[in-house]
Amino acid sequence: MLRHSFPWLSQLGLPFENSVLFSAATDSTTEVIFLLQAGRCRLRARGDHCVQNKADWTVGTETECQLLQDLSFPSQSRFTGSIQKDKCQAELLSVLEAEGKTAHLEVRAECKPKMALEIQFRHDLPQLKEIPRENELSTSARKHLKYLLGVGMKLGGCELQMNGDFDPEKNLQWKMLIENKCQTIQDLGTPIKIDGSGYLLMDKMNLDSQTLITVDKSKF
């Protein structure tokens, strides 16, 4: 606890009375309680953490502070999530709830039979109004006779996709296809479709390379 009567500290933003309480209990579940009071502002947080086959957590907060509310900090919120993994797969799930609004984050990764990463984020929080409500990102790579690559991204109504393959055993041959399904980006003059292919042949004495790229209907 901190109390003072210095006007200059108060002018710097430090209230006359302040206190912090922190406690933790550990068993099969770890529980943590945090209490912060600065003048008339109070912040309470309580959480628990459990580790068995997967790690789960829950954190809840309550605030009684006009200053934080003026900054759009919710008076009540709840954050839950879990992480689970094995030798070649991992998954993260989390949900933030605040005053009837939510935000969801899902992350999944694997390394067999292919290397892949998928991320999804959706929300209806007014504090995140500059971020589209639905967002996705996915990447994948696998070797099946040749290397296959894929990338997809979705931000609200905008969608971009890229697919390609790469064969290092046949003169380093490669192919690529990029599709732009985002009207906002198209309005900036970017192409809708880019299709490319080529090869690279190199030995001790010679170097031979050829590349063909088609941008919409124009070839280069």
What's the topology here?
Layout lengths: L1 E2 L3 H5 L5 E10 L2 E10 L2 E11 L3 E10 L1 H5 L5 E10 L3 E10 L2 E10 L4 E9 L10 E11 L1 E10 L2 E10 L5 E8 L2 H4 L6 E10 L4 E9 L2 E2 L1
Antiparallel strand pairs: 1-2, 2-3, 3-4, 4-5, 5-6, 6-7, 7-8, 8-9, 9-10, 10-11, 11-12, 12-13, 13-14, 14-15, 15-16
Question: How does this model look, in words?
Answer:
The chain is mainly β. It has a domain of 89 residues. The chain is 6% helix and 65% strand. Strands 1-2-3-4-5-6-7-8-9-10-11-12-13-14-15-16 form a 16-stranded antiparallel beta sheet. The longest helix is centred in the first third of the chain and has 5 residues. It is elongated and about 80 Å long. 1% of the residues are buried.
How do you describe this structure in short?
The protein is mostly beta strands.
Roughly what fraction of the amino acids lie in strands? over 45%
Helix percent band: under 10%
The biggest beta sheet is recorded as: 16 strands, antiparallel
Order of adjacent strands in the largest pleated sheet: 1-2-3-4-5-6-7-8-9-10-11-12-13-14-15-16
Give the N-terminus to C-terminus distance in angstroms: 71 Å
Taken in chain order, the helices and strands follow as EHEEEEHEEEEEEEEHEEE
Overall structural class, as computed from helix and strand content, comes to mainly beta
Helix count equals 3
Total strand segments: 16
Q: What would the principal axes of the Cα set say about the shape?
A: elongated
- Radius of gyration of CA atoms, rounded to a whole number: 27 Å
> What low-confidence regions span 5 or more consecutive residues with pLDDT below 50?
none
Integer average pLDDT: 81
